Amino acid sequence: MSTKLVKIRKGTKSLPIDKLEDLDNYTGLEIIGASVEVIPDLYDKAKHLKTLIINCPELKEFPSFIFQLNNLEKLKVKNSKISTILDNPISFLNLKSIDLNSNNLKSLPNWLYSLKDLEELSASGNAIESLSDDISNLISLKRINLDRNCLKDIPQGLQKVTGLNHLSLEHNSFDSEVKNQLFLKYKIWFN
User: Are residues 117 and 74 in the same domain?
Assistant: First the structure.
């Protein structure tokens, strides 16, 4: 099966539900809407999805139906005005990849640190100030991209993520001591 692409015309502020009538034939959904401000509750139509991609620059709230999608393996909600993601209970415990790039997030939601199967975490281009030491729970994590944030330090728990093979932290607020520690531990160069 494949991913259904729904492009919404500029000026249209809501998702036309009639475009999703055949969603049962797809395992993924990608929504692109330059003017979309709200994504309605799509749970009944989307509960089977393995991939969900939302790219809506005017979107202000993380769609709450996403928390109930228990088959989800790949989630991208990027390029939006979302500043907070609630700490609601989640159903997508088998999530392998999450991309929250280019939103307005100041922190990552606590539920993210419970995703034991998560392999890729990308949240570059936000305003994230710190990470929880609970990042040590992400035992399957292989890739992290947190470029262009406001991080000043990295939690000690990251050292317990032993399968990590890509760590990108460019353009954060690290002082020279933290940069030196990151170089010694992870061989990361900073310009």
Answer: no
User: Which of 103, 137, 102, 95 has its CA nearest to residue 120?
Assistant: 95
Considering the domain architecture, whether residues 83 and 117 belong to the same structural domain is answered as no
Judgement on whether residues 112 and 185 belong to the same structural domain of the protein:
yes
Residue by residue, pLDDT tens for the chain (191 residues) are: 699 999 999 999 988 888 899 999 999 999 999 999 999 999 999 999 999 999 999 999 999 999 999 999 999 999 999 999 999 999 999 999 999 999 999 999 999 999 999 999 999 999 999 999 999 999 999 999 999 999 999 999 999 999 999 999 999 999 999 999 989 888 887 76
Q: Spell out a b/e string for 39-61, using b for 16 or more CB atoms within 10 Å of the CB, else e.
A: beebeebbeebbbbbbbbeebee
Based on the fold, state whether residues 30 and 6 are members of the same structural domain. Answer: yes
Please count the structural domains in the chain.
Answer: 2
133 and 48 together in one domain: no
Stated pTM of the model: 0.94
